[in-house]
Amino acid sequence: MNIALENGIIVSDKAKLKVEQLLAEAGRDNDLTWFLRVSVVGGGCSGLSYKLDFDNESRPNDQVFESNGVKVVTDLKSLLYLVNTTLEFSEGLNGKGFYFNNPNANRTCGCGESFSV
After folding, report:
1. What stretch of H or E contains 41?
2. Domain harbouring 40, CATH code
3. Considering only CA atoms, which of 88, 69, 61 is closest in space to residue 23?
4. Which of 24, 67, 81, 115 could form a disulfide with 11 if both were Cys (CB 3.0 to 4.6 A apart)?
């Protein structure tokens, strides 16, 4: 597993709190083997979609980031789309949930769950 230090995935304060809450609800908050896996998959109305999961198994070519106390892992292919992307969390009236502020996306869909480059 490679440790990537620069140009990684950034976790906002609100996203950090939600990640910690979800890990606690799953009983995994004290198990340091669990991390947040972020990936980009084909699909969605703009061509590419974000995928978030909790995982505890490393894979070949994983890139590892530590942001705001959250361990974030992505595969090398997804990283090409996620460089300098910030994971955010909103509880606003326009929708509740995680979303990505991705400077690499040149078009996003209305729901914010898919993008194109």
Report:
1. strand 35-42
2. 2.60.300.12
3. 69
4. 67
